[in-house]
Design goal:
CATH class of one domain: Alpha Beta
Order of helices and strands: EHHEEEHEHEE
Strand order of the largest sheet: 1-2-3-4-5-7-6
Distance between the termini: 34 Å
Shape: globular
Number of helices: 4
Radius of gyration: 15 Å
Number of strands: 7
Length: about 170
């Protein structure tokens, strides 16, 4: 990462040292404040993303991050292997408060969806939960539709889980 200060935030593709720790920290901090997710959520994000990053050099997988003054301020990954059958999976999408509202969430989604088209995935899934209205609006802007809702505790606390699907 570039260490000079006062540069405009940019979106970069691929792994950089500290990516795993920073994306986990962004998720843990945001969701602990938003919905009181705790250790179970943080360890799930860390273990799943760590396993994914060992596969990052395979053609069906990719990750992007926002770099703001040398600090990772957001990210998104497309896992093209875990769901199988030509289905991509959007994972670990987060934008830090330092860049929220400045278009970087949309930029990350555009990067991810461009990759989806390049790879020829027949559809893309993402799981979230009810109440994240800005994120939902962004998903819908990019063609995702709500396909399933169910109460669940996948992240350590009961929420109304939502599955969104994009069909190519």
């Amino acid at each position: 990462m570039n260490s000079s200060k006062n540069e405009m935030p940019v979106i970069r593709r691929g792994y950089t040292p500290g990516l795993l720790g920073r994306i986990v920290q962004l998720h843990a901090s945001y969701y602990s404040k938003k919905v009181s997710f705790g250790l179970e959520f943080e360890t799930l994000v860390a273990s799943d993303m760590a396993a994914f990053l060992t596969r990052i050099n395979r053609s069906m997988n990719a990750t992007w991050f926002v770099e703001n003054d040398g600090i990772i301020a957001g990210g998104i990954s497309i896992d093209g292997e875990d769901l199988g059958d030509g289905i991509g999976h959007i994972r670990w999408f987060i934008v830090d408060d330092t860049v929220r509202g400045s278009g970087f969430g949309n930029g990350l989604m555009e990067a991810g969806m461009g990759f989806v088209r390049e790879q020829g995935f027949k559809e893309v899934h993402l799981w979230t939960f009810d109440g994240l209205n800005a994120a939902r609006a962004l998903y819908e802007k990019h063609g995702f539709v709500l396909a399933e809702e169910k109460p669940g505790q996948s992240w350590g606390k009961e929420v109304l889980e939502q599955k969104f699907v994009f069909k190519a």
